[in-house]
Amino acid sequence: MTSVEGGARPVGTEEFDRFFAECRYTAFRLETLQVYDVGYEEEAFRRFLADGQIFTTDSHAEWAHIVGSGRHFRRVHVVVEPLTDYLRFECVWAYRSNVEAGEDVNILPVDENTWPEGIPHSDYWLFDSRCLVRMNYAPDGTMLTPELVTDPAQVVLANAVRDRALHLSIPFSEYEKRFDADMKPL
């Protein structure tokens, strides 16, 4: 799953949102970045860094509604330890509420010198094991564009990567036991 290749086309926001609405059974997210730069998190991230304050936003309620829709949402995030400030924030601000809403969040911890074999350094969403959307980011974590991948071989590979990532990872609820409330190592 490399960047632009045959069998992929950019998708806009409305079409991307439809994948969530139209998925019938499962949605899987592979995350591999250590920092994401998404606008709706800016204020929450700033407060977390300043004083550890955590507050919910409309995005929490929206995601809880999507996850609570009767479909199975899963995620694996490959995290390089020690955690970046952003990952500490994501664990405290997003993953705890995602798990509470019903999403299965798993963590695949690695150190800076290792990366799990068979897991790409790229993000994607996989809907109903058949609709693959590659998430393209700039080096600073800014979203560039999602791409719908229509090449069947790439969809099959994404399913295999999902299975491997789930096999190698641990549930977030188990992972966070190694940290204090602010996700600092015990």
TrEMBL record:
Occurrences of domain DUF6879 (ranges): 14-176
InterPro entries, per the entry: DUF6879 (IPR049244)
Cited Pfam families: DUF6879
Protein name as annotated: DUF6879 domain-containing protein
